[in-house]
Every structure is written in C-alpha cells, then in structure tokens.
Amino acid sequence: MGIVILLVLMFLKVRLGTAMILVGLLGYAYLAGWDTALLMIGMEPYVQTAYYPITAIPLFILMGSIVAVSGISQDLYNAARKWMGHIRGGLAIATVGACGFFAAICGDSIATAVTMGKVAYPEMKRFGYDDRLSSACVIAGGTIGILIPPSLGFILYGILTEESVGKLFIAGILPGITQVFFYMVTIYISCRLNPQLAPPIGERVSLRENAGGLKDVWPMIAIFILVIVGIYAGIFTPTEAGAVGAFGAIIIALMLRRFSWNKLREAATETAGSTAMILYVLIGAFIFMRFITLTDLPVAMSEFIVGLRVPKAIVLLGIVCVYIALGCFLDVLIVIILTVPIIYPTIVGLGFDPIWWGVIMVRVMEIGMITPPFGINLFVLTKAIDLPIGTAYRGIAPFVIADFFHVVLLIAFPQISLFLVDSL
C-alpha cells in the first residue's frame, strides 16, 4: 500500500523526496507508533547526510561544472573532429568519442547530453548531417555519462549498498569503453547503409594538425588520469578524488585563462542546486527504506524469488526489463534510490556479484532513458536544441539495438566488468 501511495503521489507531481518522506513517516508510524516514527524522522536526515562518502557528490558535480563553464568540452569536440572528420559520419563518431571523454569528468547522463548537444549539434548541422543522426548520437552518447567513472550513479549505489565506490568506478571503465565502441560501429554501419545520413568524406587533416589537436584535450586527460589512477593506486579514496579532481579542474581552467569569478559563481550555483536536489531525495529514500525494512518486504521478496523454480537467468531478465521500463520515466539516480533497497538483497541472494550488478543496473536504465516514447534524454536534448521529438525518435533506433547487444555482452561475460576490479 505504501508503494502504491508513493506512485500515486509521484504521478500527481509531488516532489519525489517529499513523497518518500511522507509515505515513510506514515508507514513507520502505522507499524511502530508515532513516538518511534517522530524520533526516526528527527534523526535520519542528519545521520544519513553527516556521512563522509556523501561529500563525493558535490565535489564531482563541481568538477564537471567547472569543465563545462570553462569551455574545455568545446576543445575536446574540436580535437575529436580533426581525428574523425575525414570519414563518412566522422563528426557523429567524434561526438560519441567526445561524450565518452566528457563523461569521464561529468558523471551524469543528462548533463553530458545537453552540454555536448549544444557544442556538437550545430556543427553537424552546419556540415550537412541529417538531423536524425545528429540528435541521436548526442542523445545516446549522453548515456555514457553514468558508466565511465566518476559516476554519480555508482556513488549512490555504493552508499545505499555499502559496496566499495572505488571498485564500482574501476568496474565501469571497460564497459564504458565498449559502449563507446558499439556506438561508433553503429554510426559507421548506419552511414554505409544510408549515405544520406552524413555528407561525403571530408578532407583528411594532416598528422601535424591532428597532433596539434591533442594539445587541446590534455586538460581532460590530465583530470581523468589524476582521479582514476589516484583511486586505482590507492593514493586517495573516491571521496578525496572528488576534491582532487575539482581542485585540479580549477587550476587547469586558471592556467588556460578561462576562469573568472562569474564562471566560478555559475559552477558553484549549479553544484549547489544539483547537490540539494540529490540529498533531499536521498534523505527521503532513507526514511522510506526504514519503513520498507520494518515491513520485511526486501527479505520476503528475496526469499520468494530465490525459491522460485526457474533459472536465475529468467529472474535476471525480468529485473532487467523492469529497470529498462523505469528508465523511460525516471532519472537514473532516482531509480537507483527507489529500487536498490528492494532489489539488492534479491541479487545477492541469487548469487550474483554485487559490483557486476551495479554496472548492469545503471547500464540497462540508460537504455530506458533513450527508448521512445518516454526516454528522458530524448525530451531533454530536443528541448535544449529546439528539435522535433519525432526526428529524435526516428534516429535513435539503431543505438537502442546496439545497447541491447552491449548489455547481452556484459551479462554473458562478467569479466568485462570485473577484470580490472579483480586485478586490484
């Protein structure tokens, strides 16, 4: 009943954090009494936010905001264009590559899609690319944002399950790289089958110009290496990596003379707003989790599913389909907060690796974010670049097909996600 009421409140456009706090409080009071419920709701916001790993959230958001406002993302796209622009569909392939690099700093899918869309879409339009391909490669490329570390999705999953955020970051590297590869191959095949999607092959840029373009991407490479190598080598924790990365982004922006007090204010304001939203929803989730735990629903559901006389693969397929559907309607971070308390015990009970599942979970939800008719990335980007939604619908289909093949690969070969983790 509590879950049904929560869904009704969400469809009535009550803020998710408020809805979870309300349902959690009333449900807890019904089961344990008002005195205990009021004590719980008085303590829970402080207990859950006065938690050291949570400070990684604003730090990584700040790092991505600084990179965006300082124009480093434009340099990244220009360099990718020099390397890929000479082949048919090269600008679209360059856009996916740039999204992958930007994702390594941003950590959020929607932010990656909007930022790269404003940079790449006008360029592809200027060179005569079909709007279907131009929009679709940015929409799909944005989904890389939550897979390649640092990832806000992995941070939240780690906080909610008490799994190692550092291991989750490392586990996302190879799946993120293979996702970029799948998208590039999809663009190449699409342009070969339908040459009208992209203009004829452009001029090949000289090796000297290509090398010159690399000097423009060194800030992104430096920040990525600083963060990932630091975590991988055990020099600092993922939380400390957020601080190091944000500070490094500020220093690099100052060195490039692209930083000012106005840009700092813009980055700080965006960081504060995003952090407040995430923490408010997170507080609501923990209060709702208290109620859910008191009902014994997670344990009962886990025992029921584990006791079913069906192959584990069938159960896994059902859960994957549910996550794809949820991703059509809700942001990935919200889905993680809502579902992890219930699904995680089931996954562990079935004997699946929780680190591997973290990768699969965020990956399949990203498919929902680009799947018509309710893919969030579709609506966000088409609004940002003023494009008819039908055009994006027609262009995204090949990328959705590529996503399904990619997920099958990650499920069939868990070593792709766990190889680097096991080597630690």
Q: In terms of structural class, how would the helical and strand content be classed? A: mainly alpha
Helix % is over 70%
Which whole number gives the mean pLDDT?
Answer: 82
- Shape descriptor reads globular
- Rg, alpha carbons: 22 Å
**How far do the termini sit from each other?**
44 Å
**Secondary-structure element order, as H and E?**
HHHHHHHHHHHHHHHHHHHHH
The main β sheet shows up as: none
Number of domains: 1
How many strands in all? Answer: 0
| Unreliable parts | none
**Tally of alpha and pi helices:** 21
Beta-strand residue percentage: under 5%
Question: Which SSEs are present, and which pair or pack?
Answer:
Elements: H1 2-11, H2 16-32, H3 34-49, H4 56-69, H5 72-84, H6 90-106, H7 109-126, H8 131-142, H9 152-161, H10 165-171, H11 173-193, H12 207-232, H13 238-255, H14 261-294, H15 297-307, H16 312-329, H17 332-349, H18 354-369, H19 376-385, H20 389-412, H21 415-422
Helix pairs in contact: 1-2, 2-3, 2-14, 3-14, 4-13, 4-14, 5-6, 5-12, 6-7, 6-8, 6-11, 6-12, 7-8, 7-19, 8-19, 8-20, 9-17, 10-21, 11-20, 12-13, 14-17, 15-17, 16-17, 16-18, 17-18, 18-20
